[in-house]
């Protein structure tokens, strides 16, 4: 691998990690919100 | 180590591209319209979740479609630069991504909204990825009619996410997109014909000829008209939707009539076909927009009191 390819590989891996991490975090928040919405709906 | 032995990791944007984001905008739009037009209320978080699940299901089946059609896509100018035919991604990765996304979408819909909406979403995914893509698209020139069924699910799922039951209105919304798709897509196929001929997909203009396609466009447009007006005639909507649907139908018919009754000359730039295709997209957006305005106005009590009913 040339240094350029290596840098590009690193960049893509890093970007993918951020996207996967962000997606997971988003779903954690979403499931929390869904739970609150559904519990609230049953109480009301 | 050579580049061939250890390829670059796939850019995440290529995974995103597998979901056909441009098609998703129409899916999301019609899904939201079904959700907003349905009687009853849904918590905004749950409404958002339902639309997200619909979009993920559609994106997942689109990825499976990319996996299955990679060879076909490689042979067409329009699709040759997609992530798989251009070699930017492993084929199996696209398949696994698509299956994973679809399963998460169905599970999310079931857990957060309800299992009827989840079941229809599952049917939609299987319908598009298996029945249409793998089975019927390569086999019949009516493939577009069948493919239209896949695009017809989102507003129905959005509606059922709110009401929890299948009634006449969501079925009519399904039927509208179902019968709208053939004239919409065949107009495109008429001016894109050469590409499909090369890769052996039996598109109607290639198999049955151009005149037959023009006749079919006209037939489906005629069948579409009463179905589009039916929500009003059956009392499912008020006059806001009713008048809009009649005006849109008249314009659509005028464009389709031009396409349906003419013959291509040598060195034809296919202007009427391009116009019909462009208008068909506007038609769907305005129609569903009018449906939402009509229903929201009625639920808010602005209409339905004899003024516009």
Features:
heterodimer, A: 44 residues, mainly alpha, 1 helix, 0% strand, rod-shaped, B: 309 residues, disordered N terminus
Tell how many strands the DSSP assignment of chain B holds. 0
What is the overall number of helices of chain A? 1
Q: H/E series of chain B, N to C?
A: HHHHHHHHHHHH
Helix/strand/pairing class of chain A, anyone?
Answer: mainly alpha
**Low-pLDDT segments of chain A:** none
Number of helices of chain B: 12
Along the chain, the helix and strand elements of chain A come as H
Determine Rg of chain B (CA atoms, Å).
21 Å
CA radius of gyration of chain A is 19 Å
> How would a crystallographer describe the biggest sheet of chain B?
none
Mean pLDDT, all residues of chain B? 92
Oligomerization status of the protein chains: heterodimer
Overall geometry of chain A: rod-shaped
- Give the proportion of residues in helices of chain A: over 70%
> So what's the overall shape of chain B?
flat
Q: What does the largest sheet of chain A look like? A: none
Based on DSSP secondary structure assignment, what is the total number of beta strands of chain A? Answer: 0
Strand content of chain A: under 5%
Largest interface: A-B, 17 and 15 residues
Distance N to C terminus of chain B: 73 Å
